[in-house]
Write a sequence for this structure.
C-alpha cells in the first residue's frame, strides 16, 4: 500500500511541474481519495445504510499530498455502527492515514454545538459514497440546525479566533518564512470568511462572495487562493510531509518549479516572494473586509448603527470613519491626508469603504503634492499622534505613503537576504514604529531605561521618520547606510525640515548599525572601543536617539532577536558611552586605590598579578571574591565558580595554570554538554595563570542538581590531568551559507580582530579554538553569537601582546578556513 501512496505523490509531482494550478491539483488529489474510498466501500457493502461524508480540507476539496483525510460515516440509526467496522478496517489496510467517526443526525448537531472546530467541519461536509438519500437528510436535519443555533456565539468565537491566530503568527501577511495556511493573508483567512458567511448568509463557495466584493476583487481573490494552494502542494512535496511553513530552504527550488526566473533587478526568489506578498495582501484585504462586515452584522443587532457627523466631508457610522462622497478624494488629495489625520488624532477606525476610496484615488497624489506644507504638516501631526503605526500602515497599504515618500515605496516587499529577519524591509520599518509605541505604553522589564528615554525624547516624529528611512538604501542594493544617508538628505530638504532635525535624521540613518556593530562585535569593556564609539556619536542627545532607534530596529527583526543578553550588551555600551561623553573616564589607578582602601592586603597579590584589561572589565564589588577564587587556584592548581547573571545567563569563572590550547580544551567540555557559549573573556596573569570567564546562555535550561560539580570535575580532568574529550557528533552544515572570514588589523591598537560568519553546528567553536591554537595565537576575548542556525563570532587575538603580522594572518586564514568549512 505504501507503493500506491508513493505512486500517487509522484503523479502529483509531475502535474505540479507541468504547471497545474492549485485548485486543479487539489481537485485531482481529492478525486483520487474519493475514488479509493468508494472502491473500498463497494467491496464491503452493496447497499449500505450509511453515507460517507468528507469533512475539513477534504470536504472543501483542498486536499494536498500529505493533508489530513477526515470522514464522517452518517446514518439515521446508531445500531448501524456495528456494520461499519469492516469498512473502517478496510480503510486502514489502504495505508492512508484516515480519521473517521460515526454519527447520527442528533449526534452531529450535539457535537457541532460543543466547539467551533467541530461545527466548522460539519458545515463543510461533502458526500462521497454510500446511501445518497442520506445527504438530503443531513442538509435538512443537521446543516440547517447548526447554522441556526447559537449563531452569534459562533461568529463571536470565530472573530476572536481570527484575531488570536493573527497575533500568534506575527500580525502581518508579509513574512519571509510564512505559514501558507495560518499566517495572516493565508488560506485560513479565506476559510474563516467562508465559515462566518456560511452561518450568516449561507455562503458555500467563492461565488457567494459577490454580495461583498466586485467582480474584479473576486477575480483577484480567486487567483490568490489558487496560487497559495499550488504553493502548499510544492511545500508538501519538497518537505516530504505535511508542512505549511515556507522556509528559506524551500525558496530556491520552489521558484524553479513555479518557472520564475531572475530579472535585472531581482533574483528569482525575490520575484517569487514579491508575487506571494501581492497574493496574501489581496487575501488579507478582501477577507478582512468580508469578516468585518459580518462583525458589523452582529454588532448592529445588539447596538444599532449610530451615525455622527464630524464635518461636511466625514462622518462616523458604527464607530468607523466614513466619507460622504468618494469624489471628494479624487478632486482634493488634501482630504486623503485629513482622513488619515482624523483617524490618528481621534482614534477612529477607517471603514473598508473609505480605505477602498483612498486606494482608488491614490494616483491623484502627484509629485507636486510632496512639497505641500499643508500635507507635510498633517503628516508630522500623524507621526506625533500616538497612533502613527496604525495610520502609517493604512497609508502604506493604500499606496498613499508610497506616493508621498516614494523612497519608502521602493522598499515594498524588498527581501532582506539573511537568516535573521522575519519581515521584508517595508514591513520591518513600520514595525519599528509599532515597537516604540508599545514601549511608550508599557514598561519593558528588560530595558528599564528605554521607556524613560523615549518619553523624554523631544521630537518623536523625527525619530519615526528616521525609522521609516533607516533601511531606504537597501532599495539600491549597495552599502545601505551610505545610500540611505544620501536619500535622507533629499527627503529632509523636500519636507522643509529645520537644520537641527535634518542633522538628527542624517546621523541616525547613516549610523543606525553603529551601536549593534559595536556592542555585538567588539569588547565594550575596552576604553578604546567606547571612546571610538562616543567620538562618532558626538552628543548625549544623539546617543539617546540612537539607543532608542537600535532597540526598535533590533526588536523588529524577529520575535526572538531582542534577548536579555543583547539588551545587557547595548545597555552597557550606552552607559559607558554616556559617561565618556559627560567627561567620566575609567582609570586603573583609581580602581586599585579604592579596592585597596576597602579590602586591604588580602587582594594585593591578586591586584598585582592581573593585567590592566581585567580591572576595566570587572565590576568593583566583584574583585574581592574573584581574588579569593584566584588564591584557591594558586593553592590547589585549579578553581571554578558558577556566577549567575541578572540577564538569565551564567558566567563560569575558571582559574588554572596557563598553557597553549587551554581555551579549546575548555570549549570541548562545554560542547559535549550542549552548553551554548555566547561570550568569553580570557585573562593571563603576570605569573602565568589563566583566569577565564565563559558566559553560557542555556545553563539554567539544562541545569540539574549536581551539574555544577559534574562540569567542575570534567574541567579539572581536562585541564589538570590532560584528559582529551573527543567530539564525535559534529552535526551537519546547513545549506546556503558559505563561510566568511574577516581579519581586521586596524581598528584596535593591540589586537587583531577576527570575524567568522558560517552555519552553526556542534563543535564549531572548538574547531575555531583549535585553529587559534595551531597558529600559536592568544585569544583575548570572544563574542559568540548564533541566530537562526547561523554563527557570527568575533574574537580579539594577539601574539606575545602584539597584533598578528602578515605571516600569522595568512596562517590563520588557511587553518580557519579548513576547520570551519569542513
Amino acid at each position: 500500500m505504501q507503493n500506491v501512496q508513493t505512486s500517487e505523490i509522484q503523479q502529483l509531482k509531475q502535474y505540479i511541474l507541468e504547471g497545474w494550478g492549485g485548485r486543479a491539483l487539489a481537485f485531482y488529489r481529492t478525486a483520487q481519495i474519493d475514488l479509493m474510498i468508494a472502491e473500498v466501500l463497494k467491496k464491503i457493502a452493496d447497499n449500505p445504510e450509511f453515507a460517507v461524508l468528507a469533512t475539513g480540507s477534504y470536504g472543501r476539496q483542498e486536499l494536498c499530498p500529505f493533508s489530513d483525510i477526515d470522514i464522517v460515516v452518517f446514518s439515521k440509526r446508531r445500531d448501524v455502527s456495528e456494520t461499519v467496522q469492516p469498512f473502517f478496517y478496510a480503510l486502514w489496510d489502504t495505508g492512508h492515514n484516515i480519521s473517521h467517526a460515526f454519527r447520527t443526525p442528533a449526534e452531529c448537531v450535539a457535537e457541532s454545538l460543543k466547539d467551533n472546530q467541530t461545527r466548522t467541519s460539519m458545515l463543510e461536509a461533502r458526500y462521497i459514497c454510500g446511501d445518497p438519500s442520506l445527504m438530503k437528510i443531513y442538509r435538512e436535519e443537521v446543516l440547517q440546525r447548526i447554522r441556526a443555533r447559537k449563531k452569534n456565539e459562533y461568529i463571536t468565537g470565530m472573530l476572536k479566533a481570527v484575531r488570536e491566530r493573527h497575533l500568534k503568527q506575527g500580525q502581518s501577511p508579509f513574512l519571509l518564512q510564512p505559514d501558507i495556511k495560518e499566517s495572516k493573508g493565508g488560506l485560513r483567512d479565506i476559510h474563516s470568511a467562508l465559515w462566518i458567511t456560511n452561518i450568516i448568509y449561507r455562503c458555500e463557495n467563492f461565488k457567494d462572495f459577490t454580495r461583498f466584493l466586485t467582480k474584479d476583487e473576486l477575480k483577484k481573490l480567486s487567483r490568490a487562493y489558487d496560487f497559495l494552494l499550488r504553493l502548499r502542494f510544492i511545500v508538501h512535496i519538497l518537505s516530504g510531509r505535511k508542512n505549511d511553513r515556507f522556509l528559506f530552504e524551500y525558496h530556491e527550488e520552489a521558484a524553479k518549479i513555479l518557472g520564475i526566473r531572475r530579472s535585472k533587478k531581482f533574483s528569482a526568489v525575490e520575484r517569487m516572494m514579491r508575487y506571494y506578498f501581492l497574493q496574501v495582501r489581496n487575501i488579507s484585504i478582501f477577507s478582512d473586509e468580508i469578516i468585518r462586515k459580518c462583525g458589523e452584522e452582529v454588532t448592529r443587532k445588539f447596538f444599532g448603527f449610530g451615525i455622527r457627523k464630524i464635518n461636511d466631508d466625514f462622518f462616523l457610522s458604527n464607530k468607523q470613519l466614513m466619507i460622504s462622497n468618494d469624489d471628494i478624494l479624487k478632486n482634493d488629495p488634501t482630504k486623503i491626508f485629513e482622513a488619515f489625520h482624523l483617524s490618528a488624532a481621534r482614534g477612529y477606525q477607517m471603514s473598508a469603504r473609505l480605505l477602498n476610496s483612498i486606494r482608488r484615488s491614490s494616483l491623484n497624489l502627484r509629485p507636486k503634492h510632496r512639497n505641500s506644507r499643508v500635507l507635510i504638516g498633517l503628516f508630522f501631526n500623524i507621526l506625533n499622534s500616538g497612533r502613527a503605526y496604525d495610520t502609517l500602515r493604512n497609508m502604506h497599504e493604500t499606496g498613499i505613503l508610497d506616493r508621498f515618500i516614494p523612497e519608502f515605496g521602493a522598499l515594498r516587499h524588498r527581501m532582506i537576504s539573511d537568516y535573521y529577519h522575519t519581515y521584508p524591509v517595508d514591513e520591518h520599518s513600520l514595525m519599528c514604529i509599532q515597537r516604540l509605541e508599545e514601549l511608550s505604553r508599557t514598561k519593558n522589564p528588560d530595558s528599564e531605561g528605554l521607556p524613560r528615554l523615549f518619553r523624554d525624547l523631544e521630537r518623536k516624529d523625527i525619530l519615526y521618520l528616521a525609522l521609516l528611512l533607516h533601511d531606504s538604501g537597501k532599495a539600491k542594493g549597495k552599502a545601505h547606510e551610505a545610500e540611505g544617508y544620501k536619500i535622507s538628505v533629499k527627503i529632509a530638504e523636500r519636507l522643509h525640515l529645520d537644520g537641527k532635525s535634518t542633522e538628527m535624521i542624517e546621523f541616525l540613518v547613516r549610523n543606525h548599525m553603529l551601536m549593534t556593530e559595536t556592542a555585538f562585535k567588539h569588547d565594550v569593556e575596552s576604553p578604546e572601543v567606547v571612546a571610538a564609539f562616543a567620538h562618532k556619536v558626538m552628543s548625549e542627545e544623539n546617543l539617546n536617539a540612537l539607543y532608542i532607534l537600535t532597540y526598535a530596529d533590533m526588536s523588529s527583526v524577529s520575535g526572538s532577536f531582542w534577548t536579555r543578553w543583547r539588551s545587557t550588551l547595548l545597555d552597557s555600551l550606552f552607559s559607558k558611552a554616556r559617561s565618556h561623553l559627560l567627561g567620566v573616564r575609567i582609570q586603573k589607578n583609581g580602581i586599585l586605590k579604592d579596592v585597596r582602601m576597602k579590602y586591604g592586603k588580602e587582594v594585593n597579590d591578586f591586584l598585582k598579578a592581573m593585567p590592566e584589561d581585567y580591572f576595566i572589565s570587572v565590576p568593583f564589588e566583584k574583585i574581592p571574591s574573584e581574588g579569593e577564587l584566584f588564591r584557591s587556584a594558586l593553592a590547589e592548581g585549579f578553581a571554578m565558580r558558577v556566577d549567575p547573571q541578572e540577564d538569565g545567563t551564567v558566567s563560569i569563572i575558571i582559574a588554572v595554570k596557563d598553557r597553549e590550547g587551554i581555551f579549546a580544551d575548555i570549549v570541548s567540555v562545554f560542547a559535549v554538554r550542549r552548553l551554548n557559549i555566547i561570550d568569553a573573556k580570557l585573562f593571563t596573569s603576570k605569573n602565568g595563570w589563566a583566569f577565564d570567564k565563559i558566559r553560557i546562555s542555556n545553563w539554567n535550561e539544562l541545569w540539574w542538581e549536581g551539574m555544577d560539580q559534574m562540569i567542575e570535575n570534567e574541567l579539572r580532568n581536562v585541564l589538570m590531568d590532560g584528559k582529551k574529550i573527543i567530539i564525535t557528533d559534529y552535526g551537519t552544515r546547513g545549506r546556503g551559507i558559505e563561510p566568511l572570514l574577516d581579519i581586521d588589523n586596524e581598528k584596535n591598537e593591540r589586537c587583531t580582530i577576527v570575524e567568522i560568519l558560517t552555519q552553526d553546528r556542534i563543535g564549531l567553536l572548538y574547531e575555531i579554538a583549535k585553529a587559534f591554537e595551531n597558529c600559536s595565537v592568544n585569544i583575548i576575548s570572544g563574542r559568540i553569537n548564533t541566530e537562526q542556525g547561523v554563527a557570527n563570532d568575533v574574537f580579539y587575538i594577539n601574539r606575545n601582546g602584539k597584533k598578528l603580522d602578515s605571516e600569522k594572518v595568512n596562517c590563520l586564514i588557511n587553518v580557519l578556513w579548513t576547520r570551519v568549512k569542513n
